[in-house]
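batch job 7 of whatever, protein = Gas vesicle synthesis protein GvpL/GvpF
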Amino acid sequence: MTNRYVYGIVDGETIEFETDAVAGAECVYTISHRRLGAVVSDIDTTDPEDTDEDAQRHDDVLREIMDYDGGTTVVPMQFGMAFEGDRELKNVLRGARPAFRRAMTDIEGRFELGLKLVREDDTAVDREAIEADIEDRLEPIAAQSVENDLFSDRLVLNRSYLVGRDERETFDDAVADFEADHDELMVRYTGPFAPYSFVDVKIGAQ
């Protein structure tokens, strides 16, 4: 039996393209139910091994979906969501439809950008002043932001931002201006990513 591996949920778009997908699959396509589309590839198991290579493929496919046809909004699924068949997958789309619709509304036309600020060794910084500066520069541009773990003593700030496609250049410029004004910090600016940090739809694989 061929199972369906799910990358994310889109708003009714028909998507199909060839790519290097999870577990050696070479084609990604949509399975639709009532204006929701699950973007999937075929897979031999419902419990795919979480390798670094396939985790990267999962993220790469999500980026391709986001870029598809000039820009597509996608509710991303975590790595490893696989279903035994179309019926099981459509049952999930039916049951979680209200949650997916709310998530679509929240992230429509937007993606996630990440910002980490790292102080140099043996450099003292005013964390509160830096956070206030970042807030003044970036919060007016971003639709939402969330704070992430400070997993290192040198990490001064670690945040994810939900930013509209039309605001990307403005946001980039604001980060660049901040970096130019803060020689005491290393700026690690990443993305765009599928907006994992701004979606909270939990479904179970079958």
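notes: The first strand starts at residue 3 and ends at 10.
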